[in-house]
Structures are given as structure tokens and as C-alpha cells.
Amino acid sequence: MKKTIKVLAGLTLALAVLILAGCGADKAADPGIADGTYVATFTTDNSMFHVSEANEDRGILTVKDGKMTIHVSLQSKKIVNLYPGLAEDAQKDGAELLEPTTDKVVYSDGYEDEVYGFDIPVPALDEEFDVALLGTKGKWYDHKVVVSDPVEGDDIQAVLSGSAGDSASDGASASTTDIADGEHTVEVTLEGGSGKASVESPMVIRKSGDAYTAVITWSSPYYDYMIVDGQKYEPVNTEGNSVFEIPVSSLDAPLDVIADTTAMSEPHEIEYTITFDASTIK
């Protein structure tokens, strides 16, 4: 009888442990952020796996019942599946792969493109986690990603516009009064267009009195002229990527320019903004 009671007590205790363990497994971890929708930054460890340039590393983070998922629109349709974990596990029987959606992205010059998007579970903010990807050639690759900097809202472009304004204000506070005449280099950023073109950075900039001349080297040989303050400028080279020397009235504010490209079926003028980081001048 005593032996039977002991067995029953042991079974009862084991059952209680299992029940408690099950309760703990079902309970979502506290993400440290309230339920809602956010615009968040999604960064990866590889330049071939990233958010479309139109969205500048941002995706829509949804938090519900303590669980987080981020939707990101990638740069093309060359990634056909994702898996929240390692590539080795993605290839096992029964692995639940993330299927793509077809997303439309709009660049700052109005160009529209269709790319694949994915809803990716996020275990924690500001911490690396594994995401494996399957390319069009049928090979899986391991990658690390991080989701960070959530801002309440569901409009990526609205958030980017706000942050761009803050960046411009910060740049305006830079002082350039102590820069000596002569040739220098300066770090720059380029905004506008489809996001696929770039300019060399750091770039050469020459100072003479209160005037500056920037040497703009594009990532393409197809730019045939630039317009700055209504004045048209021709390239200063005949071979290689297009190079221009343009006036810059001040390094304290972003410079709006127009560049004409012949890379398309017809010449096309594109508006860009070049921002000079005066703190990097050497």
C-alpha cells in the first residue's frame, strides 16, 4: 500500500512538473516593447542580403502578444526563401520555410520596382540572430541579422523623411571657418535617384577664399552633364567613370544637383543631394 502511494505521489509530482514546463513554453518572452507597429532598422552581415535601397535598411516591425515579426522588402527577387535559423536545419524534412511576398518599392526619383519581401520572426531587439537564405541557384547560406531602433508608426518613408531632416540640421551646425586654402578630402553621402548610383567618398575638394570646388567621381561613365544652381557643367574626363568639378558655396548645407545619365534608352535628368561631412575634412 505504502509503495503504491509513493508511486502515485511520484507520478503526480512528475505530471505537475510537465504541466508547469508546458505553461512556461507557451508563454512568450517579454520583448521589452509594447504591442503595436513600428518602423525598425534591419541590418545584415552581407551586402548581398539587405533591404531595398528605397527603404534604407528599414522594415515594419509588428509586436503582438509579446511576439515580434518584421516585414522587409529585399533588393530583388534573387532570394526565394528564408529560414529563421541555420541553413543546415532549413534543409531538414519538415522545416518551415518563409515564403516571399511580392512587394512594390518606390525610389526617390519615382522609379518603381517589384521585389520579394519576407515576414521574419524576431526573437529579440538589438541582438544578432540567425537567418538562412536560399538563392535562385538552390544553395542555402547562413547569415546574421539584427533588428534595432524601432520608431512607432507604419510608414517607412515618413520616418525616413523625419530622420533626413534631423541629419540635415546636424550637418548645418558644422563649422568650416578654420579650413585652410588648398586641396583637401571630405567624406560625402549621396541621396536621390534609384539608390544604385554612388559617388566616390572621400572626394577631393579645393578651397580658395570662401569658395569650394568639389571633384565628383561617379560610379558610372554615363553621366554627360551636371547642373548646379542653374549652371551646366561638362565632365572633365573622356575615359572611365564620369568626373565633374562643380562649385560648392558652403559645406554647411546639403547641395542639390541634377545629373543627366545616358544609361537608359533616353537621356534622363535625375535630382540628387550631396551632403559634405565637414568634420571629416583632411
How is this structure best described in words?
The chain is of the alpha+beta class. The chain folds into two domains: 127 residues, Immunoglobulin-like (Sandwich); 101 residues, Immunoglobulin-like (Sandwich), CATH 2.60.40.1850. Helix content is 16%, strand content 43%. It is built from three helices and 16 strands. The strands form two sheets. The protein has an eight-stranded antiparallel beta sheet with strand order 4-7-8-1-2-3-6-5. It has an eight-stranded antiparallel beta sheet with strand order 13-12-15-16-9-10-11-14, with no helix packed on it. A hairpin with a 2-residue loop joins strand 2 and strand 3. It is elongated. The relative contact order is 0.12.
Domain module tally: 2
Biggest sheet: strands, sense, closure? 8 strands, antiparallel
CATH architecture of the largest domain: Sandwich
> N-to-C terminal Cα separation, in Å?
90 Å
Q: What average pLDDT do the residues reach?
A: 81
Q: Main sheet: which strands, in order across?
A: 4-7-8-1-2-3-6-5
Given helix and strand content, the structural type is: alpha+beta
**Percentage beta strand:** 35-45%
Per the CATH scheme, the topology name of the largest domain is Immunoglobulin-like
- CATH class wording of the largest domain: Mainly Beta
Low-confidence runs of at least 5 consecutive residues: 23-27, 163-175
Quick synopsis:
This protein has 282 residues and is an alpha+beta fold.
